[in-house]
Amino acid sequence: MYQSKRIERDRARFKKIVHGAIRSGIRKYLSHGEMIGRKGKDLVSIPLPQLEIPRFRFGQAQKGVGQGDGNPGDPLALDPDGQGKREAGSDPAEHLLEVELTLEELAVILGEELALPRIEPRGKKNIVTQKDKYHSIARTGPEALRHFKRTFRQALRRQVISGTYDPEDPRVWPFKEDKLFRSWKALPERESNAVVIYMMDVSGSMGDEQKEWVRLTSFWIDTWLTSQYRGVERRFIIHDAEAREVDSETFFHTRESGGTKISSAYELCLKMIRHSFPPEDYNLYPFHFSDGDNFSDDDERALNLLSEILPLSNLFCYGQVETLYGGGSFMKSIQGRIDGDEKMVVAQIRGRESIFDALQSFLGTGR
Fold first, then answer.
1. What is the Cα 41 distance to its own chain's centre?
2. Which of 67, 76, 302, 320 could crosslink 263 through cysteines, CB 3.0-4.6 Å?
3. What average pLDDT is seen over the chain?
4. Residue 241's closest CA among 320, 197, 301, 284?
5. Is the pLDDT score of 96 beyond 60?
6. 348: closest CA among 363, 366, 361, 365?
7. Coil, strand or helix: which one is 256?
8. Over the stretch 66-91, which tens digit does the pLDDT of each residue have?
């Protein structure tokens, strides 16, 4: 028993060290796709080069154990210059330590490092879970659930019917067959649910590198929102001059060209919300990524549609991605038209190093 407790204590200590190492390097992990590639069904595998596993180093024995010159901690059997041999060998090399975390643990670290507030959902939505409710009586059950009043009444009834009840000495002793227990039934209960609608400009100016920034940002958005809701649905919209709904694979890997009409994406998003995700049943999170180089005559229509989407959403986030050609002016149009609306958040993504700040802007509202 003592050994078991000691192992658990050491395991908890190691886990705390690992979490600290991940948190100290969270900016690096946010901007690199290595964790996404190692993502399993429920776990994420993270390489931690700064954690070294203790190991023995052996050399060729020159003297017996404990004999000869030397101090504690000196390497064994090194060359005279203290560098060891540089020849190729057959021994296994030292590897990076990989640790596995659940997405919930990863979300906790993300929330701590970005100082993210917990989200308060709009209310009960459409995810159905089971909740146990005690609403009936059974003949069997644990003593902890014995119904005292009903058991007493049953024992009293039995004694009166059998003629063993004495009013002068009113003692009631319940037998095994008198005992009644509270019983439960699993009832459906609705939990909060969220829908994330990702929209991305796929016109010719949006390259593969820009899509990778969007992919990384989306992964961390998903990680956080999934930790806040019991169920998260995702929808994907791509657009150039026209918009269409696609799957996630197409969303992140399509390369198209042509002009940009942001209003086409917002029009499809609004149609999707009204037909499939009514705000009274869903917590809505639209995210739009573009280089902001919109067709000049389209800004007004896009902003009008955005004004219709905002009241239906918990939060609307616009990320303007910088391309080789710089960035357009649509972010300035948003700020000039919808400045001050607490549901509207804009962020500029100039490169991988900007992902951390964009996430902090998007998710730091707690909405």
1. 13
2. 302
3. 77
4. 301
5. no
6. 361
7. coil
8. 556 666 666 555 455 555 555 555 55
